[in-house]
């Protein structure tokens, strides 16, 4: 037997042994994963810390049971009744839901306003927030000052913001239309007094408090490892390529979080619309779903019908959130999953 043939056989033997080792390692790791993990006994200190944790959680748990869980369960039964809070409730079964879907035109109007607001505001706020975060993430002198200035409006109460913007968007003496007339627009929009411009005006108002989302994006940007950008620069990547292939993939968990919170927030619009409807807004133009729910429950004293509306909103919002979570596996990248 020649030396070349012997060497070739030895190489094959080494490969076979290596494959056998890898197979055994995979089998052992699979057995270890299947075996139930035995929970280690807690030490005396850990038991004390556990009792202290439950003790600190107790006020919140009591509040959850008596202030949230109880009313939530009660609202299910109230939605099946006709009740004005004064006279005894009358059982109507699904009558409130039947009225909602077949006899209440304001239900579909409020649903349309809320849906259009969601489609207009969520993409706009996410794109503008990310763009501002990219600007504020630059290493420039005085950047902390600009970050503070941008975040400050987001801590102002929504009622005060609505009052401020109702004056700014006044079609006759408001600052916005005065500026538009100054630059040559003879007939600027009437904003809140117009059916076509009331909702875009409300979306424009939301940009005032975009600082909270910018801070979240900024935290996500600063969590991206710098060595990824250094490696890309060595490979000759330009700024657009680094943004598309490093920044966006690494920022997808932050984008996903912002998307979820923005969707939930778009379903909960109330305070600003409530104030603007009393300060010259066109009737029905800003009839958001929660505002219609408030009118039915607290102005019309139809608490059963308002409870039914609340549960419809909860179900619709839950469907949207579940679909968003299910589709997130296709586009959200977690660095911890890169080794799988």
Q: Which key phrases capture this entry?
A:
mainly alpha; 2 strands; two-stranded antiparallel ribbon; globular; disordered N terminus; about 350 residues; MetI-like fold; 14 helices
List the helices and strands and how they pair.
Layout lengths: L2 H32 L9 H35 L2 E2 L7 E2 L3 H8 L2 H32 L6 H9 L6 H11 L6 H8 L15 H9 L4 H12 L3 H9 L4 H29 L3 H7 L11 H11 L3 H26 L12
Antiparallel strand pairs: 1-2
Helix pairs in contact: 2-14, 4-8, 4-9, 4-11, 4-13, 6-12, 9-11, 11-14, 13-14
By CATH, the topology of the largest domain is: MetI-like fold
Q: Beta-strand percentage?
A: under 5%
Number of DSSP helices?
14
The main sheet orders its strands as 1-2
* CATH homologous superfamily identity of the largest domain: MetI-like
Task: Supply the CATH architecture of the largest domain.
Answer: Orthogonal Bundle
CATH class of the largest domain: Mainly Alpha
Residues in helices, as a percent range: over 70%
Provide the number of structural domains: 2
- What is the average of the pLDDT values? 85
State the low-pLDDT regions, or none: 1-17
- Tell how many strands the DSSP assignment holds: 2
Order of helices and strands: HHEEHHHHHHHHHHHH
**SS content category:** mainly alpha
- First CA to last CA: what distance? 45 Å
Report the C-alpha radius of gyration, rounded: 29 Å
